[in-house]
């Protein structure tokens, strides 16, 4: 993707930011928070778009906040949105990141590459003593 503007990115929680363990919170997916922080630092707006609601939603938002991610909005297009049942619940976003995409979740490294046209800087694994015998 080659966008000349900042994106509004809607991100699912279970199975996307964390391993799917609903109603519990799973372990963070590899590079999820690092990628989200980098996108946020580049000026993109992140919206948490999840099935969770009530106490379970509050737990997910707190978990993300504890890991350095503060969402522009949660389950709505903008923070001040007043939801009424006379409109669709599909939110306004440029990109939706979800584990339920056709083909499944592609991983945060690939997502970052698609959104920024950059290759993430992943440190090389250091060789250990036993690598001498390979």
From TrEMBL:
Coiled coil: none annotated. GO terms for molecular function: hydrolase activity. InterPro entries: HAD-like_sf, HAD_sf, Phage_SP01_Orf1. Signal peptide: none annotated. It comes from the Bacteria. The keyword Iron does not apply. Keywords: Hydrolase. NCBIfam families: HAD_phos_BT0820. This is Hydrolase.
